[in-house]
Predict the 3D structure of the following.
Amino acid sequence: MNAADSPKAKDAAKPGPEPKTATEKIVMGGGCFWCTEAVFQRVNGVKKVVSGYSGGHVPNPTYEQICTKTTGHAEVIAVEFDPAKVTLATLFEVFFAAHDPTTLNRQGADAGPQ
């Protein structure tokens, strides 16, 4: 048997999986996280968007606790993105187009400290 015909040689000639590209993450708070999440899911280069809460004085709060508006938490999104496809500057442009930082505790119809 020729060495080039061996099973190992044939496996080595097969293309492997695509190398994973390095991603970066940023956490942003912009009012209702479901609305903000929906905006970022449409941005080319964004790999994943996860909604959650940040800050506050209650560890691991439930949704019901958050809704009391007494835990001190803010709604946030964690955006995982490929910096080779979308820049941080572009993500900030998208964020500030969807978020008005001049309105305290309000974004659109969503009002309150959470």
Observations:
- Helices lie at 7-13, 33-40, 63-67, 88-98.
- The first helix runs from residue 7 to 13.
- The chain is about 25% helix and 25% strand.
- The radius of gyration is 22 Å.
